[in-house]
Write a structure and sequence with these properties.
The protein is an all-alpha fold and 105 residues long. It is built from three helices and no strands.
Length: 105
């Protein structure tokens, strides 16, 4: 009884692996068709995923560590600059108060 059950589980696993293999193949084909139309960011991500999967399937490891670096947009840079400018003003005011300046409350 346990042997038949183990064989049944093994067959189901093989079936699922086959199905997932087909899904992966269809997905990779779709990616291959659309990667040329992708924006640079999406193409970079797709290329990286493809390389990682190839390495995983061939039992290899990446030769280098990969770091994800956040690069702010121009709008984010402007907002950060504005926040820094406001904080600098606050520090200047607090320094003047601490030194007994005319901005004392």
């Amino acid at each position: 009884m346990e042997r038949r059950e183990a064989e049944s589980i093994s067959q189901r696993k093989k079936s699922i692996i086959g199905i997932l293999g087909n899904v992966a193949e269809l997905g990779a084909g779709r990616m291959e068709e659309t990667i040329g139309e992708a924006r640079s960011r999406d193409a970079t991500i797709g290329t990286g995923v493809a390389i990682d999967k190839i390495l995983a399937l061939t039992g290899q490891m990446p030769a280098v560590n990969i770091a994800n670096i956040w690069m702010p947009t121009e709008a984010e840079r402007r907002a950060n600059y504005e926040t820094d400018r406001k904080l600098d003003r606050i520090v200047t005011m607090l320094t003047a108060v601490d030194e007994g300046g005319s901005n004392a409350p």
